[in-house]
From TrEMBL, chain A:
Domain of life: Bacteria
GO molecular function terms attached to this record: ATP binding
Pfam families from the UniProt entry: ABC_tran
Name the record gives this protein: ABC transporter ATP-binding protein
From TrEMBL, chain B:
Annotated GO CC locations: plasma membrane
One GO process term, biological-process aspect: response to antibiotic
Domain (ABC transmembrane type-2): residue spans on this chain: 13-238
This protein's name: Transport permease protein
Protein location: Cell membrane
Topology term for the membrane: Multi-pass membrane protein
Listed Pfam families: ABC2_membrane (PF01061)
Sequence similarity: Belongs to the ABC-2 integral membrane protein family.
Sequence intervals crossing the membrane: 19-37, 49-69, 90-114, 126-149, 156-175, 217-235
Keywords: Antibiotic resistance, Cell membrane, Membrane, Transmembrane, Transmembrane helix, Transport
PROSITE patterns linked to this entry: ABC_TM2
Species for this entry: Streptomyces californicus
Amino acid sequence: MMNSEPAPAPPPPPDPAIEARGLTVVRGDRTVLRGLDFTVRPGRITGLLGPSGCGKTTLMRAVVGTQAKVTGRLDVLGRPAGDPALRPRIGYVTQAPSVYTDLTVRQNLDYFAAVLHPGRAHRDARRDAVARAIGDVDLTSHADALAGALSGGQRSRVSLAVALLGTPDLLVLDEPTVGLDPVLRRGLWDLFHRLAADRSTALLISSHVMDEAERCHRLLLMREGRILAEDTPEALRDRTGAETVEDAFLHLVDAAAPRTEEAPR
Amino acid sequence: MTATAGRVLRQLAHDPRTIALLVIVPVLLITLLRYVFDGAAGTFDSIGASLLGIFPLITMFLVTSIATLRERTSGTLERLLSLPLGKGGLIGGYALAFGAVAVVQSALATAVSVWLLGLDVAGSPWLLLLVALLDALLGTALGLFVSAFAASEFQAVQFMPAVIFPQLLLCGLFTPREAMHPVLEAISNVLPMSYAVDGMNQVLHHTGVTGDFVRDVVVVAGSALLVLCLGAVTLRRRTP
C-alpha cells in the first residue's frame, strides 16, 4: 500500500482535519501539553509517537473534546474541538477497550449505532453499518460472543469497530494495536490505509512502538508535553541520518536537551 | 432514550442471577416478615406496606449506583458522552430500564403480600404499585447521583448505609414520626423516604385517594426528578 508513494503532484492541500496552535493542557497543577503546534490532514495517517506519559492520550482527549482545561487554538474539522456538531464525525478509541463486557459484540455495536443514528427509519442502515464494522475488524465469527469472553486483543477490536460505525471523518486511535499479534496488526494497518485512501478519513494514531511509525504518512514525535518533530518518516530519517525512526527519535531527544545532558557520554 | 433502556435491560438479561435476586429477594423477605409477626397481623400490615415501598428504593439504589459506576470506570461513559447522545437521554434510559425492572419486582411483591400473605389494604393495590414504582425511580435517581462521588465499587456500596439508612431510621418505620424529637422530625420532613412510607400507609388505611397521598406522590416524584437532574449535572463531557 506504500508503493503508491510518492503521490502524484498533489492538488492544493484540503482543509486540515486538525489544526493546533499553542495547544496547552493543564491537569491538576501539571502542564501536560506545552504550546503545541501541529496539523493533521485528511486522507493521511498521522502517527503520534513518544514514550509513555509524554501526553499522547491527553492530546487525543483534547482533540475529541473530553479533556478539560484546554487553552490555545485547536480546530477539528473546521470547528473548535468539543463542538457538539463534531460528535458524530469523530471516532475515538481509548487505550482500554470501552465496550460493555456483559453484552455480545453485536449488541454493543447495535447500541452505539442506535446512539449515532436513532430512530426506526435508520434501522436497516444501522444493521448494515454494524455488519460492516464487525467485518472491518474481522470479528464476524465472534459477533454473538460476549465481549467479556473475548481475548484482550479481540475486545480492543470491538472498541475499534464502535469507532468505525458512523463512517467518521476523523479517527482518533489511542494505541489500537497494543497486544495484537503481527498478523492482526498488519490487517489493522491495511484497514487504516484503506480508510485513509478510500474514505479520505484522517487518522491520528498513537503508539509507543516505533516500528509502527514506518506505516504512517506523517509523524508527530512527542516528548514531555512538547512536539520534537513533525514530518514524514523518510524525512525524519534523512534529516537525522538515522536508519530507523526509533534512532531518529533518540537523536532528536539528545539534540533537544543539550544543556541538561552536558555530562560526558 | 429507548436505545439506552434497551441496552441496560439487555445487559441485565445476560445476568440471570441478578434478575432472580432482584425479583425473588423482596418476596422472600416480606414472607419472612409475615411469619415474624405471626401473632400481630396489624403490625405486619403497617410494616409490610412500608417495606413494599422501601425495597424497590434500596435495590434500585444499589443496582443503579453500581451500574453507572461501571459505566464511568469502564470508559463507556466517556465514549457515550463523545457521541451525539444527550445526558437526559442517558439518564432517562437508565430510569426507564430500572423503572421497568421495578414494576416487575413491585408487582410480584405486592401481589404476594396482598393475596397470599393476607396484607390488609384498605385502598387499591394499584396505588401501592404506583408508590412502589416512584420509590424505585427515586432509588435509581439517588444511585445515579451518588455514583458520581464513588471512585470504586467499595465506596459505592458504602453509600447505601450512608444515604439510605438515615432515611430508613427517620421515615416512621420504627417510631411514628410525630413521636420523634422535633429536630429529628424536622429532618424527616425533608427526607423523601418519609413520604414514600407515608404514601404506603395512606393506601393501607384509606379506601380512596387522600390529599396526603397526592402530596406524598408529588413529593416522591419531584424528589426523584430533582435528583435525576442533579445526576445529569455530574455527567461531564470534559473531565480533567
